[in-house]
């Protein structure tokens, strides 16, 4: 029986996906796995029993990644599971940024009580909410991952000219992008060409505040900016100044922070990007599948801390090794298997930055081999399945 602790309300889909042999609850003291959405784990004491954490969503800034890596705890996320939900909200933001629908609705509510005069008042006052159509305009998509691709393709289908920027674009993602989408090699090209800009990049030290006074100055006058990724990707004060100077026509964001709330030219949405039942179910399903495959088979898919490593079982036992990414680690671990009197039926290993993961299927039971592997310098955690 595996114990899975939930830190947020998780879709019942996750419980069903895990199935028999899993105890899922929010009051478990010694879990092998944690399922989390938005709850912060930075102050949480990680129990020795904990083998993995699955974030039902893409962002993992609520999880102490360095601490988990040092303790040999695998961290998963669910990339793409909520992509369609976010795409639909980005398209909503795109249209709202142009047509002043939010302001128009708010103004229309003030006409309540004027009886038969409302129609005349609407016709007289509606000109203040005029805005351009998006067809034929240029949308710059910064980041062509799961969400950025869907946004780019949908905007192209709506008649927009779309230019995309992503220095880390994978071959698989490139094949999913509509042929009408153009690629550019620099952000400056995005800024110069785009009537609308939408941001789909992770928050890192390199991307924090990259939409700032300097980048805004390179944009077209009257640009409309959508940020449905992370609040700290933009410098709020610089965006507000851009709006005041008429450089920015509208800023739409899914992150309602105190400094932008109520400001003219800002549409702040209360983080609704993945708030659909379909998205929550998709994330829960993917998170549960990742946990199940890791706990039962040792396979890793969609980890943010370790490489993807998976193979079919082929021996009497399976040894899973999390280690530092050091030279000759695989050789050292293999030697310990031999020293224990066992032999290797199959092996798969890969590294990701400072850490590595190795799966070894052995010809005989592997408890002795596992104990021997623990003595290798740089090995963090060893598990036998």
Question: What is this entry, summarized?
Answer:
It is built from 13 helices and 16 strands. It has helices at residues 12-18, 65-70, 83-99, 101-109, 118-125, 146-157, 171-176, 187-193, 213-217, 236-244, 277-297, 329-339, 367-373, and strands at 2-6, 22-25, 33-36, 52-55, 74-76, 138-142, 161-165, 182-183, 196-199, 223-227, 248-253, 266-268, 317-324, 344-352, 355-362, 379-384.
Description of the structure:
- This protein is of the alpha/beta class and about 375 residues long.
- It has three domains: about 1-80 and about 275-305, NAD(P)-binding Rossmann-like Domain (Rossmann fold); about 85-270, Rossmann fold, CATH 3.40.50; about 305-385, Alpha-Beta Plaits (2-Layer Sandwich), CATH 3.30.70.260.
- Helices cover about 30% and strands about 20% of the residues.
- It has 13 helices and 16 strands.
- The chain has a seven-stranded parallel β-sheet, with helices on both faces. Strands 2-1-3-4-5 form a five-stranded parallel β-sheet. Strands 14-15-13-16 form a four-stranded antiparallel β-sheet, with helices on one face.
- Strand 9, helix 9 (about 215) and strand 10 form a beta-alpha-beta unit.
- Helix 1 (about 10-20) packs parallel to helix 11 (about 275-295), helix 3 (about 85-100) crosses helix 6 (about 145-155) and helix 12 packs across helix 13.
- The radius of gyration is 25 Å and the shape is elongated.
- The protein starts with a strand and ends with a strand.
- The mean pLDDT is about 95.
């Amino acid at each position: 029986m595996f114990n899975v602790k939930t830190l947020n309300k998780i879709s019942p889909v996750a419980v069903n996906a895990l199935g028999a042999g899993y105890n899922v609850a929010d009051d478990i003291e010694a879990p092998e796995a944690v399922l989390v959405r938005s709850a912060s784990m930075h102050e949480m004491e990680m129990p020795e029993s904990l083998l993995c954490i699955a974030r039902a969503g893409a962002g993992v800034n609520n999880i102490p990644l360095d601490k988990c890596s040092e303790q040999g705890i695998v961290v998963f996320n669910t990339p793409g599971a909520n992509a369609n939900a976010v795409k639909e909200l980005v398209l909503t933001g795109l249209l709202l940024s142009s047509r002043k629908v939010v302001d128009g609705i708010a103004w229309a509510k003030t006409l309540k009580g004027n009886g038969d005069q409302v129609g005349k008042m609407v016709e007289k006052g509606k000109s203040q909410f005029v805005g351009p159509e998006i067809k034929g305009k240029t949308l710059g998509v910064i980041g062509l991952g799961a969400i950025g691709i869907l946004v780019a393709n949908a905007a192209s289908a709506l008649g927009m000219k779309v230019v995309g920027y992503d220095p880390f674009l994978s071959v698989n993602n490139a094949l999913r992008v509509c042929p009408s989408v153009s690629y550019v090699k620099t952000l400056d090209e995005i800024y110069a060409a785009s009537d609308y800009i939408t941001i789909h990049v992770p928050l890192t030290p390199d991307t924090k505040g990259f939409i700032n006074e300097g980048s805004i100055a390179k944009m077209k006058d009257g640009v409309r900016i959508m940020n449905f990724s992370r609040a700290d990707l933009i410098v709020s004060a610089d965006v507000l100044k851009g709006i005041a100077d008429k450089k920015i026509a509208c800023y739409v964001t899914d992150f309602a922070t105190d400094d932008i709330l109520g400001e003219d030219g800002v549409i702040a949405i209360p983080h609704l990007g993945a708030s659909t039942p379909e998205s929550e179910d998709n994330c829960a399903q993917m998170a549960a599948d990742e946990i199940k495959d890791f706990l039962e088979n040792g396979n890793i898919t969609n980890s943010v801390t370790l490489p993807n490593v998976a193979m079919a079982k082929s021996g009497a036992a399976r040894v899973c090794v999390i280690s530092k990414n050091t030279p000759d680690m695989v050789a050292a671990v293999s030697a310990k298997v031999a020293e224990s009197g066992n032999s290797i039926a199959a092996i798969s290993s890969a590294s990701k930055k400072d850490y590595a993961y190795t799966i070894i299927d052995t010809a005989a039971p592997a408890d002795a081999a596992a104990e021997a592997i623990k003595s290798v310098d740089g090995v963090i955690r060893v598990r036998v399945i």
